[in-house]
Amino acid sequence: MPDVPIDFTFLSNLVVVYGFNVVGAIVLAVVGFWVAGAIHNGVHRGLLASKRMDVTVASFLASLAQYATLAVVLVAILQLVGIQATSLIAVLGAASLAVGLALQGTLSNMAAGVMLLLFRPFKVGDAIEVAGKAGTVRDLNLFFTELASGDNVQVLIPNAQVWGTALTNKSKYPTRRVETTLTAPASQDFEAARAEIAAFLSANPHALASPAPVVTPTAYSDGAVEYAVKVWTPADQLQALQADLVRYRRDRAHAQAEPQAAE
Question: What span, in angstroms and rounded, lies between the C-alpha atoms of 23 and 19?
């Protein structure tokens, strides 16, 4: 076999040049990720410095700035290792259809995130039900909506599912209505029973006087009359009112049971 001369000088120069490029690309990637995180935190804090800025909007724009920085870092890394941006754009342009189909879900999540930001059906801190999940909104970014469930478990829902389905926002309006049933002995006069229940609701600090509570007899069973109760309360006091109604129902049941036991 003929001897093929090996230019070790050329090879060493090649290794040195590309080695420095690879090391530089790694360093640039590490620094780029750190800078992107710093930009995210800085934009988030800067936007929240304004009292008029909504937390949801601030989180979304901070996430957008972070991903834009990462895209710039990616292009810089490709150029550093010898891949020209113009060539990359040409390849992506030729394969745009395939890339679009492959990233259809991701792009739909991004588009849905933009729509959620524009129309803002909820904000951070709202209690919502969507896509079969319920919880308190913790964050909205380009791809996911983050909820904290009732037992404080993280729930991530793709934005496309949030935007494309019915959504219940329990925190949108300042007041909520509670509906329940209470019972009174059949021997007790209707008006006296209604007045007794209405007096309890009027004295309850969690019940609103306007709209006025509604107490209506609806059914008779087992020697007792059922009364349908509809009462309004501030949204943040809903659970407190429900607890008061449970205690009141229990106390009435005990009071009705004592005369029967004495007989």
Answer: 6
- Find the DSSP H helices in 49-126: 55-80, 85-94, 96-102, 104-119
Helix (H) or strand (E) holding 245: helix 238-262
Taking the model in full, what pTM does it have?
Answer: 0.60
pLDDT at 221 over 60: yes
Residue partners of 133: CB distance under 8 A and separation at least 6: 147, 149, 155, 157
Q: Which two tokens stand for residue 67?
A: 């991903």
Backbone angles phi, psi at 177, to 5 degrees: -110, 135
Q: Omega into 211 within 30° of 0, i.e. cis?
A: yes
Over residues 106-163, the pLDDT tens digits come to 778 888 988 888 888 999 899 999 999 999 999 888 889 999 998 999 999 999 999 9
Question: If you write DSSP's letter for every residue of 68-87 in order, what string do you get?
Answer: HHHHHHHHHHHHHTT--HHH
3-state secondary structure of 146: strand
Computed from CA positions of residues 31, 32, 38, 39, in that sequence, does the dihedral angle turn out positive or negative?
A: positive
What digits encode the pLDDT tens for the residues 150-207? 899 999 999 999 998 999 999 999 999 999 998 888 888 888 888 999 999 999 999 9
